[in-house]
Write a structure and sequence with these properties.
heterodimer, A: mainly alpha, two-stranded antiparallel sheet, B: 418 residues, alpha/beta, Rossmann fold, 5-stranded parallel sheet, 13 helices, 14 strands, globular
């Protein structure tokens, strides 16, 4: 029974990993662009939730929506104000620009919110439900389900809708797409909005169960990179599988071997997998 | 001859221009370099201590006759250095030991500080003190608890706070007391973050528990930056210890309390070893799920009108919060350092070091519940001690030892409302 609890816990954790990683993989898949500020988007989503709860005493639906919208807008602004321009520069400038952006966002958050840890007061998702002796924190359960729905939804949007085809067309061949009447800037701005918005929702969901401070983005950012690399850069379903696998491995190894070994196990398997399959689980070679 | 005259005239003029001559006679400021984590995981604790140090400097630099026997409070500045003021230089090591080392070097070589203080995380104090030792600059370790900071044969390192063994012994005395009252303490569990601080406190507790014949059911080391601790909580749930001792920093201690609630695990008693449990963010975040959690503290606010109460009022006016134990221990170490600089009557490092070795502050001259401040030859304060406190509602109350207690110990802990 205890072991089943460990597995459930690992899967729920993995689903959250998947949710905040899907946005990162989307940007990579669309634009071959690595966004180092992704963890900071998650962090901002958490603070937006806090503000909504404190100022407007909104519930999880309200602050989840607010975080998604706020981060979507921020994503579009960042694309229009920064990314669009550095895309024309060399690869190194692209990498460093988002790195700089990450630091800017992190230290602005320090300036505004201070270094203190904060956490959300009790919300309607704070409880735990008991399914045949297995305890599931409601917040993690909802995040897990929502993560799977959103990632699958994102995947369908990319592969089954006109907008998705346009997004993919731009990423395949920008000039050809322009000749077909697609505006690449709009499509890419949309991709940044979606990516940041997904990070915002992930932040809102995580804010329910985790205490955080402005430096939390570092931790989440790193995890997101591992998930994306394992799942295959650019593959949304890959991020989902990789997130679940990493969550599960962490939970099992932490329980059996002890928490300090969990990352050793994860990264050892990660390196081994990349050695055998450098493109990741579902990436294109 | 004429040329050398010209040369010396130029030199004197230059010196006057840069104000050297005016400083040659009297010291107008003593520079204290302070290395703390002002951002990063322990940023909140560092910021809280920074506010405390600023108040301590204010108490020394300005006349505060209302603060009783606290040394240097009555006078403005340091009387033996003709009223010289303390000037604080803060730097941020972000919880990174190698950065702490670099910053210590920078403070000594570039900022030319007279003494150093820091560095919160034991791992950072460990590296920063080694720099001070190499340059021969006195270093006051405000509150890092790991054993290995003193005892390396260093001459320049002093530590005002109680250390891991003092705390471990306190816990064992407390357990013996509880057993006498008929509480069951069959086994204990230790959960520690795995850097110097957590490891060394956990080791000390295990050693003392062995001596006291209390079995340790399980020891769980973990990384303080963990984003999920359910596996650890499930391990505890499986072993059913009577007391769980957490040696944790801020985010992780909050996460443990919330996860224990989520997984429905409540041991008879949880003891937090200060740090995270004393962080200003801890109580507001988990008060509703961690009722009755115990913590250690050598700091008590005291009755209105007392010196400690007045100090707390000053801190509250500045930060809007009560002074916490961690910051208070830093403040106490700061006062001990200022007292030594004053007795040295000089900013010369060697004189300050000698004055530190001769420190002998009595209990009535302190703001903390120590028996005094007196350093042994390793630089450790041998008169340091601590109380145990318990979370009742939204504040900690002193519950042990009985003779100092101002509230009744609740055992088992209540945890959360049903």
């Amino acid at each position: 029974m205890l072991f089943l609890q460990v597995i459930v816990g690992g899967l729920l954790l993995g689903a959250i990993y998947a949710l905040f990683s899907s946005g990162l993989t989307l940007i990579w898949g669309m634009m071959n662009f690595i966004n180092f500020a992704h963890g900071e988007f998650v962090m901002l989503g958490m603070y937006v939730s806090l503000l909504v709860v404190v100022w407007l005493s909104g519930g999880p639906a309200a602050f989840g929506f607010a975080a998604a919208v706020a981060l979507f807008v921020l994503g579009v602004i960042i694309y229009a104000g920064l990314i669009r321009h550095v895309m024309r520069g060399p690869m190194l400038a692209q990498i460093l620009s988002t790195f700089g952006l990450a630091l800017l966002l992190r230290y602005t958050a320090f300036f505004i919110f201070s270094a203190n840890f904060v956490s959300l007061p009790q919300t309607s998702l704070s409880g735990t439900i008991d399914v045949g002796g297995i305890l599931m924190p409601l917040a993690q359960l909802v995040s897990g389900v929502l993560a799977i729905v959103l990632t699958v939804g994102l995947h369908f949007m990319l592969t089954r809708t006109t907008i998705g085809s346009r997004l993919l067309a731009v990423s395949e061949d920008r000039n050809a797409a322009m000749l077909m009447g697609i505006r690449p800037n709009r499509m890419q701005a949309l991709a940044w909005g979606l990516s940041a918005g997904a990070a915002g929702i992930a932040g809102a969901l995580m804010a329910i169960s985790y205490p955080w401070s402005p430096s939390v983005g570092e931790t989440f950012g790193l995890t997101a990179f591992v998930v994306v690399a394992l799942g295959g850069f650019g593959s949304v379903p890959g991020a989902l599988y990789a997130g679940l696998i990493i969550g599960l491995i962490q939970a099992i190894s932490a329980f059996w071997l002890g928490p300090i070994y969990k990352d050793i196990v994860v990264y050892a398997l990660f390196v081994a997998l990349l050695w055998l399959r450098p493109q990741g689980l579902m990436g294109k070679a | 001859m004429k040329r050398s005259c010209l040369l010396s005239a130029t030199l004197i003029l230059t010196a006057a221009l840069f104000g050297w001559t005016s400083r040659a006679g009297a010291v107008d400021a003593v520079k204290i370099g302070i290395i703390w984590p002002l951002t990063g995981n322990a940023g909140a604790a560092g910021q809280a201590s920074k506010a405390a140090a600023e108040i301590a400097a204010d108490i020394v630099n300005n006349a505060h006759p209302e603060l009783g026997d606290l040394p240097l409070a009555k006078s403005a500045g340091l009387p033996n250095l003709s009223g010289a003021k303390l000037q604080l230089v803060f730097v941020d090591h972000q919880g990174n030991p190698s950065l702490a080392q670099q910053l210590a070097t920078r403070l000594i070589t570039q900022d030319k500080v007279n003494v150093l203080m820091g560095a919160y995380q034991s791992s950072c104090s460990f590296t920063a003190t080694a720099v001070a030792e190499r340059y021969g600059i006195p270093f006051m370790v405000g509150e890092s608890a790991a054993l290995n900071i003193t005892g390396r044969g260093f001459k320049w390192v002093f530590r005002g706070t109680p250390i891991a063994t003092d705390y471990a012994r306190t816990y064992m005395r407390f357990f013996a007391d509880m057993k006498k009252q008929g509480k069951k303490i069959g086994s204990i569990a230790i959960v520690n973050e795995n850097t110097d601080y957590g490891t060394s406190v956990a080791n000390s507790i295990i050693d003392e528990a062995k001596k006291a014949n209390i079995p340790v059911a399980i020891r769980i080391p973990y990384s303080a930056s963990s984003t999920d601790v359910s596996a650890q909580v499930l391990q505890l749930k499986e072993k059913q210890p009577d007391v769980v001792i957490f040696i944790s920093y801020t985010a992780d201690s909050i996460l443990y309390m919330k996860t224990m609630r989520n997984l429905g695990y409540k041991p008879p008693m949880v003891i937090g070893d200060d740090s995270g449990f004393s962080d200003p963010s801890f109580v507001p975040a988990v008060a509703d799920v961690a009722q009755g959690v115990m913590n250690r503290s050598a700091w008590v606010i005291g009755k209105p009108g007392s010196t400690t109460y007045k100090i707390n009022e000053m801190y509250k006016a500045k930060t809007g919060r009560d002074l916490d134990d961690t910051s208070a221990r830093n403040m106490q170490s700061f006062f001990a350092l200022a007292d030594a600089i004053n007795r040295a009557g000089s900013t010369e490092p060697e004189k300050i070091r000698v004055a530190l070795t001769q420190t002998d502050l009595k209990a009535n001259q302190l703001m903390m519940g120590y028996q005094g401040v007196k350093f042994d030859k390793t630089g450790q304060n041998i008169l340091a001690a601590t109380y145990l406190i318990q979370l009742h509602g939204k504040k900690y109350e002193l519950v042990w030892p009985d003779k100092a207690a101002d509230a009744k110990l609740e055992w088992p802990m209540a945890g959360w409302a049903k």
